[in-house]
Write a structure and sequence with these properties.
Blueprint (H helix, E strand, L loop, with lengths): L14 E8 L2 H11 L8 H6 L9 H15 L11 E7 L8 E13 L6 E11 L5 E12 L1 H4 L1
Antiparallel strand pairs: 1-3, 2-5, 3-4, 4-5
């Protein structure tokens, strides 16, 4: 199979590695400063005093890091046509500066679209684990991919 993926290249049960990302302290604070300025995302002492136990990335920052891994590991080398939405996001554990996050995408289902014959829907579960193999986030959504015969 070529590295460029079309709808036909996905099968239920398939697991696709998406790569890894080292979580940077300055990025955690910069993201939180702009988008989620809660104290435990901005300050080590506030983080320690919280249920998180230390300066922790915003869940939205974690989602954004996963999105980048999805793009680099799958979407930019595919016939992706966007997504109708996210079905579920779960933030299971805090993400700390210095963590190394590893992402995978598991194909849950595929379905050709009758209404748009050039497209199919692939339902994926993305899992993000830290350097200890502990899941920190999951995300499930359906993505539209172009069919191979339409690429010609």
């Amino acid at each position: 199979m070529s590295t460029f993926r079309h709808f036909e290249d996905f099968e239920p049960g398939q697991v696709i590695p998406l790569g890894s990302k080292l979580v940077d302290r300055d990025e955690v604070i910069a993201f939180a400063t702009e988008f989620d300025p809660q104290p435990f995302h901005l300050d080590e002492e506030a983080g320690k005093a919280s249920v998180l136990g230390g300066l922790a990335a915003s869940g939205w920052h974690t989602s954004s890091m996963l999105m980048r891994l999805m793009c680099d590991g799958l979407l930019l080398a595919s016939s992706c046509n966007g997504s109708p939405g996210i079905d579920e996001v779960r933030w299971m554990r805090p993400v700390f500066p210095g963590d190394t996050l590893n992402a995978t995408a598991e194909v849950l289902a595929t379905r050709a679209l009758r209404s748009r014959p050039g497209l199919g829907v692939v339902t994926l579960r993305m899992t993000l684990v830290n350097q200890h193999g502990v899941p920190v986030m999951t995300l499930e959504n359906s993505i539209l991919f172009g069919r191979r015969e339409n690429a010609a």
